[in-house]
Amino acid sequence: MDPGNGDTGEPFKRLFFALDCAPQQRRAIARWRSELELKSARPVPSANFHLTLMFVGAAGTAQLPAILAGAAGVKVAGEPLTVVLDRLQVWRPAKALVLVPSQTPAALRQLAYALQQAMLALGFTEDPRDYRPHLTLVRDYRGSEPEALVPAEFVLRARHFTLFESRKGQYWPLAQWPL
């Protein structure tokens, strides 16, 4: 279901929940990515690096208060969340090169599931596949997995989760909640 479709004529926003990366971490990941010497792909701007929790999709602007209230009601562990991004993968159907954790923390899965449940109550459903945490490095990637001179090991320490709006290739934080 896509409650924010254009059938009503209401303005809408493309929304997603994510864990943001700190500026120094963005720079480190971008440097590491540049050492992969990728030739035929579209690099994701480092300002857009994040770990997606849930893609909400198109939501009518009138739904935003309910989305914010739903996210505010999500129960969290009450401590920072640590995720180690240590594996490089090619996601062929998505044509993306991504960083993923070899071990997904239970608290990360619980947060993603709690957000899905909160948004489901508002009529938003996510793709029924299992949650696959990832940070997208490049889009339109068609090659094999590149050889990294230095293994990936980026430790993402999140103290909050954020609702972002995707607008013209840039991600704008709308609200955040502490972990």
Automatic annotation (TrEMBL):
What UniProt keywords are attached to this protein's entry?
Hydrolase, Ligase
Tell me the leader sequence span. Answer: none
Q: Name one Pfam family in it.
A: LigT_PEase
EC identifiers of the protein: 3.1.4.58
Q: Which reaction does it catalyse?
A: a 3'-end 2',3'-cyclophospho-ribonucleotide-RNA + H2O = a 3'-end 2'-phospho-ribonucleotide-RNA + H(+)
According to its UniProt record, which residues of this chain constitute the active site? 50 (proton donor), 134 (proton acceptor)
| Motif HXTX 2, residue numbers | 134-137
Q: Extract the GO molecular function terms from the UniProt entry.
A: 2',3'-cyclic-nucleotide 3'-phosphodiesterase activity; ligase activity; RNA 2',3'-cyclic 3'-phosphodiesterase activity
Supply the NCBIfam families for this chain.
2_5_ligase
This protein is called what? Answer: RNA 2',3'-cyclic phosphodiesterase
